[in-house]
Amino acid sequence: MSGTDPGEAHLHRLVLFSDAVFAIAxxxxxIEIHPPEHWNGIPHLLSxxxxxxxxxxxxxxxxxxxxxxxxxxxxxxxxxxxxxxxLNFVVLGLVALLPLATELLWEQVGGQAYPVYVALVGxxxxxxxxxxxxxxxxxxxxxxxxxxxxVFILARVAVLPGLMCGLSFFSIIYPWGxxxxxxxxxxxxxxxxxxxxxxxxxxxxxxx
Length: 208
Prior knowledge:
By secondary structure, the protein is an all-alpha fold. Helix 2 (42-75) runs antiparallel to helix 4 (98-107). Helix content is 77%, strand content 0%. The protein starts with 5 loop residues before the first helix and ends in an 8-residue tail after the last helix. It contains seven helices and no strands. It has helices at 6-31, 42-75, 82-95, 98-107, 113-138, 147-173, 177-200. It has one domain.
């Protein structure tokens, strides 16, 4: 691959490796689910497995959201270096713990695992935000992006997935939480579009 920028090739390999870790983590979620030894009919089976299936659904969504966020962030990068590797490994190491945290959810008694799980999800968001923050503001590894948009990406990655995870558990008990979650996602989406349009708007001509 003569003529290929080493930093660009490095970035490509890093993305491939990261995709593999996300895929393994999301696969392990299903592998850890085992049917009960004794059940009588499908309704009884579903009632017995409801906690496991609910935890699986939430974790599947969490990993999927973080994978999409990871892909969007890395699509904005032009190169990679060793520091980015280290920060990305922190993200992947935390993601790889999600199957264990998911198992804790259905084995816990009295809800003790919920704070641990939400804290892990929040830590992944902060680690991913740190990765983008380094790439965009310190390492200068990102493609040209307006400063307001770069800051919005940082805030969205750090805050939104953790909030959505917490609201998912909240919504299982209080169904109106789903409406709150939809409003949160819609609000972030509209804000992101507004910032993108604002950043793309040409500056007013003051020469006349």
